[in-house]
Structure formats: C-alpha cells, structure tokens
Amino acid sequence: MGSRGAAAAAALSRASRIRSKLQSALEATVLEVDDVSNQHAGHAAVRGSSDKETHFNVKIVSPKFEGQSLVKRHRIVYDLLADELQSGLHALSIVAKTPRETKPAQ
Amino acid sequence: MATLNLSSLQSLSSRPLFYALPQNTPTLSFNFQPKPSTPARPISLKPYHSEKPRAGVVALAVKSLGETEAVAVSPENDVTAGELPSGSGVYAVYDKNGEVQFIGLSRNIAASVSVHWKSVPELCGSVKAGIVEEPDREALTQAWKSWMEEYIKVSGKIPPGNESGNATWVRQPPKRKPDLRLTPGRHVQLTVPLENLIDTLVKQNKVVAFIKGSRSAPLCGFSQRVIAILENEGVDYESVNVMDEEYNYGLRETLKKYSNWPTLPQIFVDGELVGGCDILTSMYEKGELASLFKK
C-alpha cells in the first residue's frame, strides 16, 4: 500500500481497519467487529489512556479455519492484526468458526 | 473471590426469600438471601457471544422430580465418568435412607455431584439429575423451582440442605493459594533471562494461569472469568499476577514474546499454551476441560 493508502487507512476507525484486514485475508462469510472499549474503560491496565478503541469482539466464520485448533485460529487473527495490537488495541474476544461449524445441527 | 452466583445479574433480587439457598462454589445455587459478605463482583458464566433469543414464555424443559430415575452412586464410582450427565440442569441428592438432602442447580451436574460426594459422602446415596435443554438462566430457575415445589408438595418440607443458613452443601471457599512470583524482587539481578523462568514455571506446574491481578482479586474481566472457571473445575492451578511490578517486572512483554500470543490472560497446561479467556470458556462450555486437566 502506498503512503496515500496508509494515511487513508489511519483515518478510518480501528473497527473498519480490523474489518478490512480480516475480510480480505480470511474470505470471511460472516464477519462481525464490535468496539466494546467502553465496557472496559477504567480498568487497571487501561486507566489513564484514552478509552477508545482498546477492546473489540470479533466473530469470524471462514473456511480457512478448517482443520485448525482454536489456538491456531486465534493466532492467525492476532497475526493479521499485529499492527493494531502494537498501537493500542488491548484485547480481542475472538469467535472463530468454520462454515461447517455454524450449520444448524441436523 | 469468585463466587459463582447466578443472582449476579440482579434479576433475582426481587424474588421472595422462601427458597433460600447457600452459595456453593461448583454448583451455581441461587442465593436469595442478601449476604453481607457477598463479594462485590460475582461471576457470571454466561457465554459472551450468546445468540439465544430470550424466550417470551418459558416452557418447563425438565422432567418432574417424581418421574426422574435416581442413580445410585457409590464413593468408588468415578461420578463424573459414570451415568451422570455433565450438562446443565437441576439435581437432587438422596441420602442412603432415600431422603432428599438437597436440591441444587448446576452448569455441570456431574462435577457438582462429584464435589458433594467428596465433601459430605455420609449424606450421599443417590442422585436424580434433570438436564435442562437450552439452559439459560430463566429455564434453569424454572426447572429448579419446579423440583423444589414438587418436593415440598409431596413431603411438606424443604430439603435440609436448602434451608437458609445451612452450609453443609457449601464448600467453604478454600483459603486461596498465593500467586507465584517469578523473581525475588526488582532489586535482585536475574542470572537467567525471564523467558527461561517462564519456561521453567510452565513446565514444572501442570496448570498455570497468567492473569492481571491476583487470583483473589483479578483486575480485569477476562482474568476474573478464567479464575472462575478454574475454581469451578476444582483443578489445582498456579496463578501469576502479571501486573506485579515488584516480583514480575517485565513479565507482560516477555510472556507475550515467549508464547507468541499478544493478549492476557494466558493459560498453560502441561507446558503448552491453551489460549486465553475465550478458548478456556469455549472448552469449559463444551465440557472439554475435565479431560484436559486430567491428562
């Protein structure tokens, strides 16, 4: 991404950046990204810094998770969001499923 | 202290005090009595990403007490591997004379019964278990109430274990183990890198939870939940307070590198990272933790 792209990305919210990073890499069929920072505002490690965009819930359904343990799936997501984690993203609640796992039981 | 108390979500505080139940660590009993010593933040073990719609009308989802068959349990049986389900629902403990001693509620009936058998074996002869389908709080409450009411109607009394003030079925919260410290203090120069200390610690202890805060006073919701789950499972675990700047200085950053995992809390079993709060919760809900901790 050229510098203009990077600047544009920074202007988007963290939620949008998370969404776009995960969507493209994971070909997600379901992708929900929620900023729940206000639920954690004021707790010990966050106190003092601005309580914006620090805690997110993400739910991803992707065929790329097939055959991966939960730990592996979470690692994939963490790696994709490494930049965010270095720049103030503090916690991520992850639900990572494959399309098969979300089919209603017969 | 992580008290597992379904009244945490405040919706039960307006119920009549008739069904007073003691607090019970592995069993999520309803505490209708306002206890002065109740800790400020009881734990809710409801899943984060619950997608269940709230039912407008709660149909009774459990067989009646009378219709349910009792399962005799002898102390030698491994209760959890036996015929008792490890799902959520209501259960009734009968003593060796066939009298009901206690009617309880649990997210893991087999686990709760196992604890009772260890702590008050003289009061335990057999158990009736009623699994509740779609065990949300509402359904579980209804089911428990239905068994209590049925029993009271038939016998004219409350089971002795359910009387208010009865602490028999309450496990006294064990004096919590102190958290492990990685170093003797900041003033002491380390002779080995912190990573090595972490490595040794997770390899020498079966279950290790790196949390924010101490196990008796966790400092973040995810850490609190991890402790609640570990306490509920009754497993022996070590806890390490990553916020302790005196004895665990630099731990947060070193741990993240060591495990290649960017968030806290982190749980290790048999020297390997199991994951964080989400993964532990998911395994807990699927009933996978018992076998993980046994290995």
From TrEMBL, chain A:
InterPro entries, A to Z: BolA, BolA-like_sf
Subcellular location per the Swiss-Prot or TrEMBL entry: Plastid, Chloroplast
Gene3D superfamilies listed in its UniProt record: BolA-like
GO CC annotation: chloroplast
SUPFAM superfamilies named in the record: BolA-like (SSF82657)
Keywords: Chloroplast, Plastid, Transit peptide
Pfam families per UniProt: BolA (PF01722)
Keyword Chloroplast: yes
PANTHER family (alphabetical): PROTEIN BOLA1, CHLOROPLASTIC, PTHR46230
UniProt name for this protein: Bola-like protein
Organism (species): Flemingia macrophylla
UniProtKB/TrEMBL annotation, chain B:
Residues in Glutaredoxin domain copies: 207-274
GO MF annotations, alphabetized: 2 iron, 2 sulfur cluster binding; metal ion binding
Entries under InterPro entries matching the protein: GIY-YIG_AtGrxS16 (IPR049620), Glutaredoxin (IPR002109), GRX_PICOT-like (IPR033658), Monothiol_GRX-rel (IPR004480), Thioredoxin-like_sf (IPR036249)
Pfam families tied to this protein: Glutaredoxin
UniProt xrefs under CDD domains: GIY-YIG_AtGrxS16, GRX_PICOT_like
Domain of life the protein comes from: Eukaryota
UniProt keyword annotations, A-Z: 2Fe-2S, Iron, Iron-sulfur, Metal-binding, Redox-active center
Gene3D superfamilies: Glutaredoxin (3.40.30.10)
Family assignment from sequence similarity: Belongs to the glutaredoxin family. CGFS subfamily.
Protein name: Glutaredoxin domain-containing protein
